[in-house]
Each structure stands twice: as structure tokens, then as C-alpha cells.
Amino acid sequence: MNIYSLEELQTFRQQFEGLDSEDLKRDFFLKKMAEMNTKLESERIALLTTNNSMNGQTNNVSSKKHWSYDDIQLLIKAIKLFPAGTQDRWAVIAKWVNDKSTSGVTRNHRDVIGKAKDLQNSDQSQTLREEANKNAFKTLEKNQPKGTQPSDESDPSQRFDAPRTFVDLNANPWNNEEQQLLEQAMKTYPSSLGTERWDLISKCIPNRSRTDCIERYKYLVKLVKSKNEAKTVVHKNKK
Q1: CB–CB of 115/93 below 8 Å?
Q2: Which end of the chain has fewer beta carbons closer than 10 Å to its terminal beta carbon, N or C?
Q3: Same domain, 154 and 67
């Protein structure tokens, strides 16, 4: 089952655009992202629990298969390529890793689930996801000259985008690695490039489309503007 259907994404957009203030929009967006993270975590736990209860002994044997560095990198890439909601996700991931690996080791869905669990426990991915938004916000705010509002870059989606739908959007939350790639790409390809800028930027970030990058930037800009506006209101009230 997919995390969000097309109809749900359209409803999300309508609800988001119907909110009156930037603060309400920000809170609504962050709430939806938290709900999605909860769904992802629930699916992961359900899969691991089912696997452990039905295939405990076999899983213990298969988990002893050696994982080389290259195979681990293939697994990490496969997990990103086939996100939660993909039909027969772990079987698909196992097949993809087997097709790409040169180690000669054949792995099944129990092998990849077991290794994915190890990686999940070691990299503290949930904490990284939560920190990604905070770090991105701080970076954009820090790079903005004092006393000015962040630029919308001439509203890139209106100037250069054809009519778009949420089908183009990757609903998975941005992590620190993706945010750093976005920041670097924006420095590498300045706004003077015009229409091709966001195409070039999106090519630097695996699994993120042109629309994803534009929406991410616009979202961060709105967060900074909202904070600046709030500071202005507080300052005026003190006078």
C-alpha cells in the first residue's frame, strides 16, 4: 500500500493552499511530514516483526552471509530506489542487489531485511531526518543578509515550470545528505542560468525531481520569511 495516493496528495495541496497564514501552513506541513514518518516506521516494524516470528531460524542462518562494502552500498541505494509502499519491496530489493552485485552471493528478502535493520539501528536515520529540516532552515537563514527577506528567485515554478502535479513530487522527507547536495548544487548553478538551472540542480540529487528541488527551496524561503515577519511584529509591539 502506498503511503499517499494521488487523491490524498491533491487533498493535501488543497488543504495547504486553503490556510490563511504562513505559520499555519508551516505547522500543517510539518505535521503531515511527522505523520508520514510514523507510517514509514510502522511499516518497517511490521515487516521485521512478521519476518522474525515466521522465519526466525532461517533468518539466523541467512544473516551470517558476508556483506562486502560494495554490497552494503548496493543495498543502501536499493532502499532509496524502492521506498516504503513498493509492492513486495524487500523481494524487489533483494533481486536488484543480486543483479548488481559481483560478490557471487545470492540473497533473499530475509537477508536484506536483516541487514537493513542493522543499518537502521546504526545510523540513527530518524534523528538525521529530523535534523535535516532544522539544519536547512539555519543554513538559509544564515546566508541571508541581515535585514532582508530571502529571495523567491523570481518564483521559479511560475516562470519556468509547465503546469505541474504532485505526481512529480517525492513524498519522502529530505535528509541531511540530500539537503547538502541541494545547497552545493545551488552554489554551483546560480540563478543567472535561467530555465535550465533547476534541471541541472535536480541531476545532482538522486531520487529528487526538478519539482522536488523547487518546492524544497520555496518551503525553506517561506519558513525564513515567516520567522522574520514574526520578529518584526514582536519588535513593533515592544515600541
Answers
A1: no
A2: C
A3: no
